[in-house]
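Lecture notes, continued. The same structure-token format from the folding unit now serves as the input rather than the output. Read the line below as a description of shape only.
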């Protein structure tokens, strides 16, 4: 259960790290904001939200099986 919890935290942290210059989806997001591509920014936000929701769902289901 703790490993799944840390995995969720790491996924969210990766977005923040990318946003401040570490690469990944956060980097794409900051570049789209910088050039003013709001349609792209919206798409990235939706993708981030979808990934987080799916990860939360599957980790909750897996934790239920382990407990």
């Amino acid at each position: 259960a703790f490993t799944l919890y840390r995995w969720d935290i790491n996924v969210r942290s990766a977005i923040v790290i990318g946003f401040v210059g570490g690469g990944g989806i956060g980097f794409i997001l900051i570049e789209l904001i910088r050039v003013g591509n709001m349609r792209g920014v919206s798409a990235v936000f939706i993708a981030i939200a979808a990934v987080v929701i799916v990860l939360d769902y599957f980790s909750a289901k897996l934790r239920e099986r382990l407990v």
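Point for the exam: The mean pLDDT is 82.
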